[in-house]
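#struct-pred

JT: dropping the chains for the assembly here, can someone run the whole complex?
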Amino acid sequence: MSEDRRTFLKEVGFAALGLGCGFPLVRAAFAEAQHGTNQDAEPSSQWAMVVDLEKCLNGEVRAACVEACHREHNVPEIPEADDEIAWIWDEEYKHVFPDQVHEHTPAELQEMPVLVLCNHCTNPPCVRVCPTQATWKRESDGLVMMDQHRCIGCRYCMAACPYGSRSFNWRDPRAYVRTDESGQPLSDFPTRTKGVVEKCNFCAERLRDGRQPACVEAANAVPGGEGALTFGSLAEPDSDVVRILGEKHTISRRVNLGTGPNVYYVV
Amino acid sequence: MSDRAKALSGLAVFLVLVAFPTWQTLGAAGDAARPELELPENETECIEETEYMSARHMELLNEWRNAVVREGETEYTSTAGETYTMSLTGTCMDCHDNRETFCTRCHDYANVAPRCWNCHIEPEGS
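RK: done, full complex below.
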């Protein structure tokens, strides 16, 4: 044999080193490829909302939106803030857009009330972490849906959502749902139960019937609130949302995270 | 010996008492009264055969649930070819409008406690 013992050992050593370094790279490449295919499966259409911050300065408009949504979906009114459930609510500008304010931003802008709700992200982190697929991205129209039958209340989605759009039912919501005189809840939308997570569903039940979301309808019904909220499909080039996004300066929440929020704000 | 008689009779009483659960049910054995369900007055047929419905309605409801919630479908075509809207509170409760005298009576008899109504809202007047 021409190879001596020393050369042989050297070669084996290098081969082992090569394999050791190579495998993680190959694995990473595979993971990348798989992740890539996930992103390819983007919804064929995507509902989006544009919120006009100036028109929403009117407290009546915001209150009407919240009231309409919470009434429509039998959202419980729990007095204790820790257990509160909300689908759409007011938040201060500096908390909604933490990366848009700095120490010299005028206080009135920092404290300006902004309507917030689920962003129905293009790349929703809540969906990625859900262990039971109780929350998922609907391929037909891009809604981030919830299946309350499947939710096990692990709250991973709440931890994953960077917008705090989700609420957990710490107690039985039935006792806190508003009812009429005969004790019947105001809407026939199913309530939730203790131990599940809930959030805005972009009024999937109304979209099915070709209607606009409750908040949009409510805002338009308030004098001066017309066009405060605009809802439509990003896939239709002549929809109102696409038109506004093309004409006006709009921002969305924490875009640097890569979640692809679909609620836009006209500033 | 008088002690023997005492011991035997004591033993007999003991055995009778120990076997109480056995002989007590022997006499009372028989099926629990079957629930009497109030059926809809204006309808004669359910969406599928009655036998199928009473035995498998929970499976059908599960199928409906998944189809509506997850697939976004709304219409169900029965084996007879009729189409119905897949809705517990709409379609089912439209005919079976009294939960107490229909659903609950049988569920109590079968000792099952479905949790549909923890969330779903009974239509008014039912």
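JT: nice. The radius of gyration of chain B is 25 Å. Helices of chain B lie at 2-18, 20-28, 50-71, 88-95, 100-109, 116-119.
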